[in-house]
Amino acid sequence: MDGTRRVQVLSSGFVGFLGFPAAELVRLGPPWPAAVAAAAGLVVFGGLFVWVVWHNAPRPHSAATPYALAGMVVTAVALQFALRETWLLTASFYLVTLLILVLPRRAWVPALAGFWAWHAALAVLVLDRPFGSAALVGGGVTLYGAALGVGYWVFEVGGELRAARAELARAAIASERLRIARDLHDVLGQRLTEVVLKSEVSARLAAAEPERAAAEMREVSRTARAILAEVRATVSGYREVDLDSEIATAREITAAAGVELTVRLPPEPPPPAVAAVAAWVVREGVTNTLRHSMARTCVIVIAVAPATRAAGRTTAEYVGELAGRSSRAAEPPEPSARAAGTIAAGANAAGANAAGANAAGANAAGANAAGANAAGVNVAGVNAAGEPVGATVTVLTGEAAGESARDGAGGGRVFTVIVADDGPARGPRRRVEPGTGLTGLAERLAAVGGTLSVEVEKEWFMLGARIPEGAE
User: Fold this and answer.
1) Axis-axis angle for helices 32-56, 3-12 (nearest 10)
2) What's the pLDDT score for residue 147?
3) Which of 32, 31, 98 has the alpha carbon at shortest distance from 65?
4) Rounded to whole angstroms, what are the CA distances from 376 to 86, 151, 285, 398?
């Protein structure tokens, strides 16, 4: 039995207290017409009480049955002339209880004051009591009503707190499910790609270079054990990512896939909170490069940069500019410099520029259509055939759109993380869709006030993130 039904049943049981005025009616022994009328009045009063309780308990304080309540008051006044002393006190408790149940809280004080005046008037005018005695008894019943109201309010607040606690528990469960789904995607996406690549390399080398093939299979076994450990850590909630480890893993799997990787880092390592988010960007970017393109060159750049770039700069020029800001080249240095120069020189000058793409509505109009999250995902950067059309694609979630403007104007440093590849120059790439990976990554960035962007040009594809230094 739920709480509402319990209140209805228990409150209906109060009708049994009408046996006291019925006994008083027998004791008084009025003429039979008056006795029949009084007995009928008690039945009507009890029936109206049950009616009011059953219709108002599911929706308390809504005054769902005003006419039934008014009928009870009229019946109580009429019975007062026949039942005298016992009835006034009995009817008062019934009516005060219903006032608290039926009326909204803001009406309790004036209703209780009006009840006190009603009780005192009946006691003085019908029962010929002194005003002082009538006022005192009426005050006692009014205090009962006030105490009942306070108790009812505490009961309702407790119910609201329990409902809020249950809602928080449901939200925590939903958040944990989302975390596990996002983390499993991030873990399995890259690691399984590594397993597939190394397995294919081993299969190709099995006949010609069996020793190297065996070494590759040992690496597959090591990676599989690492996947198992990371999955266990994911479901237990204790997994952390490390930027240096992600870059090292990116070197291994790009080398196995025959992709030249260039990494350039800022002169000083980013703060730990920024590095943790940057690690997720590197993982998702490299995974997308290997799974969704035919790229042969991949560039990872982490630099301290403004939140916006100069109008007219293509993706390749922007990556080259950021590479110049990042004076610390990760091993080996020569390929890094060579790749950075290739980016700057090989860009298509007629490609998309960020300002024009955003002004044309690439940020806003397509965002809601894709519907990945609050601010959405714009996927206007490729045509129906999956070919780049030179438009800027921006991914934003939550409040990130508002944060992006703040990043550049707040005075603090903004770290830009870029993972770019030359896949578009070598063949069609899959349509940029707001899948689990991009959506999950955008949610991570939005949580720290950052932004995520995806840009497609004729020769370069770029996944970029801007992370404010104050990320937590």
Assistant:
1) 170
2) 92
3) 98
4) 70, 47, 19, 8
What does DSSP assign to residue 371? Answer: -
pLDDT in the model for residue 402: 38
Quote the pLDDT of residue 90.
87
Q: How far apart are the first and last CA of the chain?
A: 47
Please report the pLDDT score of residue 326 as a whole number.
57
The predicted pLDDT at position 281 comes to 92
Q: How far is 443 from 83, CA to CA, in rounded Å?
A: 72
CA distance 105 to 121: 25
Helices and strands counted in the chain (H then E): 17, 7
Q: Rounded to 5 degrees, what are φ and ψ at 238?
A: -110, 10
User: What is d(CA 462, CA 323) in angstroms, rounded to the nearest whole number?
Assistant: 14
* Position 264, amino acid: R
For residue 131, the tally of other CB atoms under 10 A from its CB is: 11
Q: How far apart are CA 110 and CA 106, in angstroms?
A: 8
The C-alpha atoms of residue 303 and residue 340 are separated, in whole angstroms, by 14
Give the CA angle between residues 214, 287, 298 to the nearest 5°.
95
What does the radius of gyration of the chain's CA atoms come to, in whole angstroms?
Answer: 38
Profile the chain (472 residues) by mean pLDDT over runs of 10 residues: 72 82 85 89 91 85 85 88 82 88 87 90 87 89 90 84 80 72 71 80 84 85 80 63 86 84 89 90 87 84 70 67 56 35 30 31 33 36 40 39 40 85 73 65 86 84 88 62
Global pTM value? 0.45
297-304 and 260-265: which strand pairing?
parallel
> 266 and 328 in contact (C-beta within 8 Å)?
yes
Maximum pairwise Cα distance, the chain: 120
CA torsion, ordered 161, 162, 163, 165, to nearest 10 deg: 90
Name the strand (E) or helix (H) holding 464: strand 461-468
| Separation of alpha carbons 270 and 244, rounded Å | 11
- Amino acid in the structure at residue 274: V
Report the interhelical angle of 436-447 vs 400-409 (nearest 10°): 50
Q: CB within 8 A of 348, min separation 6: which ones? A: 314, 316, 390, 457, 458, 459
Residue indicated by tokens 């993706």: 315
Residue 392, CB-side half-sphere exposure with 13 Å CA sphere: 28
- Nearest 5°: the CA angle 311, 317, 321 is 95
Cis peptide before 332 (omega within 30 of 0): yes
> Residue written as tokens 């005025």?
21
Q: Which of 136, 64, 138 is nearest to 98 (CA)?
A: 64
Domains and CATH numbers, the chain: 3-167 (no CATH), 258-468 (3.30.565.10)
Question: Mapping DSSP to helix (H, G, I), strand (E, B) and coil, where does residue 287 land?
Answer: helix
